[in-house]
């Protein structure tokens, strides 16, 4: 497969453009970025991308998060170059301040996400245990089936999903499209009725 030949004049123009960008100040490069010059953005990244990534990695202690922060900052610079004001400091200082601020935000977001996941896992474990505990005294399936028949439909359906399908309170609530608190109340009220019925039946049998 042949590569397309590049005319020497085109090569000279490319080298000339690169030389011009190398010689431009950061402020001039920002002006060029505002005019949608991608080469100008690439030159800014060449100059400052390493420092931005290094700071983001030092703050987040995570290479992937640091890369995410770095990419986000340069995309934002491309979309909003006017946010940089040369009168308030150098471009590197501006980018590093943005990198530090965004890295801190990312860390807080990650910590909040992990806390939510931990709380959700703990909640699922707790509700699973809670339902197991609720059914602990109802070991006779035949008796349970008979006791279920005396319950109102909403209580019976919730208990069937929890007992026969092994769902947690939250999963039962999602299946029935009801608030979790309502489901808990229905299950506990239904279990109370069932226990009372089972006790009375055992008393009759004896």
TrEMBL record:
InterPro entries: RNA_pol_sigma-70-like, RNA_pol_sigma-70_dom, RNA_pol_sigma70_r2, RNA_pol_sigma70_r4_t2, RNA_pol_sigma_r2, RNA_pol_sigma_r3/r4-like, WH-like_DNA-bd_sf. Residues 44-111 form the RNA polymerase sigma-70 region domain. Keywords: Sigma factor, Transcription, Transcription regulation. Pfam families: Sigma70_r2, Sigma70_r4_2. GO terms for biological process: DNA-templated transcription initiation. One of its GO terms (molecular function) is DNA binding. Residues 141-194 form the RNA polymerase sigma factor 70 region 4 type domain. It comes from the Bacteria. Belongs to the sigma-70 factor family. ECF subfamily. PANTHER family: RNA POLYMERASE ECF-TYPE SIGMA FACTO, RNA POLYMERASE SIGMA FACTOR SIGZ. This is ECF RNA polymerase sigma factor SigK. It comes from Ferrimicrobium acidiphilum DSM 19497.
């Amino acid at each position: 497969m042949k590569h397309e030949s590049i005319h020497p004049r085109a090569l000279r123009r490319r080298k000339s453009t690169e030389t011009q960008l190398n010689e431009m100040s950061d402020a001039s490069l920002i002006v060029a970025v505002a005019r949608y010059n991608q080469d100008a953005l690439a030159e800014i990244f060449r100059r400052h991308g390493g420092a931005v990534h290094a700071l983001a990695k030092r703050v987040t202690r995570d290479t992937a998060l640091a890369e995410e922060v770095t990419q986000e900052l340069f995309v934002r610079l491309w979309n909003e170059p006017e946010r940089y004001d040369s009168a308030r400091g150098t471009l590197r200082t501006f980018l590093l301040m943005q990198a530090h601020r965004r890295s801190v935000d990312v860390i807080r977001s990650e910590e909040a996400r992990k806390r939510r996941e931990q709380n959700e896992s703990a909640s699922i474990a707790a509700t699973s245990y809670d339902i197991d505990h609720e059914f602990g005294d109802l070991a006779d399936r035949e008796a349970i089936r008979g006791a279920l028949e005396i319950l109102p439909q909403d209580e019976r359906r919730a208990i069937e999903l929890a007992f026969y399908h092994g769902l947690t309170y939250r999963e039962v609530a999602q299946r029935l499209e009801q608030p979790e608190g309502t489901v808990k109340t229905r299950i506990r009220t239904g279990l109370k009725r069932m226990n009372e019925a089972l006790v009375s039946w055992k008393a009759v049998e004896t």
